């Protein structure tokens, strides 16, 4: 079955099958890779046998706990299992039955759910909702599941080509429609406008093949179109929503980093003897932010529809660069942890995020976020808020600055910090007071540790 990873995940997308039908499978072999909207994982077989049937293809979005494959003995009859599995054949069969049932509906009649291992009573209620036919004006018939997907993606499902029983639009038809976009037409291709490449095909450009000739643009250079991964789509959607739905403003500060530089040097020289983690500048900033935020509650919040949610503890998100894209694990209750505990938790979460083994439960519920690009020599940037949070700090590199001391210009090492905050929730003055206090604490970090 498709595993359930954490309480927040309802479905996963199958990325790649490592085995094919007819292959012998040993317990512990990797069957397929899959991903949520936050991370990617691999599923291993718990039994040995023959992979008799694959019930979900690469790219399918499969509800958690639905059956995705059948493993058994060679030649074993799996027809009974197929009737209860979430395959396209089973879906079509179930929808045929629902069409017949629609003619003589019986209130409260139980309907089995294909491929689910959830409790039967819950399945009955869910299945009844999924298998009831929905008629729409113009004699268009569409299943509730397909209609919900179309509405969620703002697709005109009247443009879908039905492949279900009795001309009914089912889930796979809407998925196919989504590949062609909201206004996808089902008429003959000749009625469609020509592509931009074809319209503007130059008359005297040797070797130009246009869109039908392969991956080559108007200049003759080659290119490759690569579909977005599920994680990349989720990041894009979240970032666009963040920028378009908030009144984001960024304030830039810097502080004298001499104290944290000296303290880190001391830890590197003596930390191992005391059994300490490799505590970094980022760990120190996480620690300082977790302490200062408790006194600036407007930034330790979620901005929700018509209300503000204030958190008692600081659930600190930290942006992590992974091979699959940006992930933001959460250090829960960071304000109650020691510096060494924060360092250990941060490293463990970063490692899990980068390896793709992190639980989705640790990729949500943050109340504030830190994004550190200082190691890339970034001098200044405007971090994007992770909604529904109201603030995020960007950590910049360390630069040499000059200040006047007794009339003399004195160089010092300064670290830059950039606070982006949601001006709907926080005004400029309290946001600046938060940053002033944070900078003071970082400039006197060893004193902060004594509190």
Instruction: Give average pLDDT, whole number.
Output: 81
List low-confidence stretches. Answer: 86-137, 183-213
Major sheet details: 6 strands, mixed
Percent range for β-strand residues: 15-25%
Instruction: Round the Cα radius of gyration to an integer and report it.
Output: 28 Å
Large-scale geometry? elongated
Q: Total strand count, please?
A: 20
Secondary-structure-based class equals alpha+beta
Helix content: 25-40%
Number of helices: 12
Distance between the termini: 51 Å
* Largest sheet: spatial strand order: 11-20-19-18-14-17
Please write out the topology:
Layout: E1 11-17, E2 24-25, E3 30-35, E4 40-44, E5 49-54, E6 61-63, E7 69-72, H1 79-83, H2 88-103, H3 120-131, E8 134-136, E9 140-142, H4 144-152, E10 168-169, H5 171-180, H6 196-199, H7 230-245, E11 248-256, H8 258-270, H9 281-292, E12 301-304, E13 307-310, E14 316-318, E15 320-322, E16 325-327, E17 330-331, H10 339-355, E18 368-372, E19 391-405, E20 408-422, H11 428-443, H12 445-449
Helix pairs in contact: 4-5, 9-10, 9-11
């Amino acid at each position: 079955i498709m595993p359930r990873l954490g309480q927040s995940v309802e479905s996963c997308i199958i990325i790649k099958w490592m085995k094919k039908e007819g292959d012998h499978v040993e317990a512990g072999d990797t069957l397929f890779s899959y991903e949520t909207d936050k991370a990617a994982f691999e599923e291993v077989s718990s039994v040995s046998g023959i992979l008799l049937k694959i019930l979900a293809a690469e790219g399918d979005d499969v509800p958690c706990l639905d059956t995705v494959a059948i493993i058994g003995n060679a030649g074993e009859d799996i027809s009974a299992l197929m009737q209860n599995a979430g395959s396209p054949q089973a879906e079509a069969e179930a929808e045929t039955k629902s069409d017949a049932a629609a003619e003589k509906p019986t209130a409260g009649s139980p309907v089995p759910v294909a491929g689910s291992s959830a409790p039967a009573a819950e399945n009955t209620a869910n299945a009844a909702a999924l298998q009831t036919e929905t008629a729409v004006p113009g004699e268009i018939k569409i299943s509730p599941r397909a209609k919900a997907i179309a509405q969620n993606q703002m697709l005109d499902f009247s443009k879908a080509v039905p492949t279900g029983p009795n001309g009914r639009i089912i889930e796979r038809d809407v998925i196919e429609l989504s590949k062609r976009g909201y206004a996808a037409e089902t008429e003959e291709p000749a009625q469609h406008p020509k592509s931009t490449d074809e319209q503007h095909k130059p008359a005297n450009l040797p070797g130009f093949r246009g869109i039908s000739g392969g991956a080559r643009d108007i200049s003759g250079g080659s290119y490759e179109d690569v579909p977005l991964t599920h994680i990349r789509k989720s990041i894009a959607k979240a970032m666009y929503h963040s920028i378009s739905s908030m009144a984001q403003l960024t304030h830039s500060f810097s502080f004298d980093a001499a104290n944290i530089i000296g303290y880190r040097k001391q830890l590197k020289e003596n930390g191992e003897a005391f059994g300490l983690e490799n505590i970094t500048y980022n760990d120190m900033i996480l620690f300082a932010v977790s302490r200062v935020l408790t006194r600036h509650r407007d930034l330790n919040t979620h901005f929700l529809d018509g209300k503000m949610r204030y958190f008692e503890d600081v659930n600190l998100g930290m942006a992590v660069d992974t091979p699959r894209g940006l992930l933001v694990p959460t250090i829960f209750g960071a304000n109650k942890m020691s510096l060494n505990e924060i360092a250990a938790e941060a490293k463990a979460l970063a490692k899990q995020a980068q390896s793709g083994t992190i639980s989705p439960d640790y990729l949500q519920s943050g109340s504030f976020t830190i994004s550190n690009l200082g190691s890339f020599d970034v001098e200044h940037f405007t971090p994007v808020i992770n909604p529904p949070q109201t603030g995020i700090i960007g950590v910049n590199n360390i630069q040499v600055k000059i200040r006047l001391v007794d009339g003399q210009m004195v160089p010092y090492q300064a670290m830059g910090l950039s606070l982006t905050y949601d001006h709907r929730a926080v005004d400029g003055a309290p946001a600046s007071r938060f940053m002033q206090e944070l900078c003071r604490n970082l400039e006197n970090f060893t004193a902060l540790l004594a509190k």
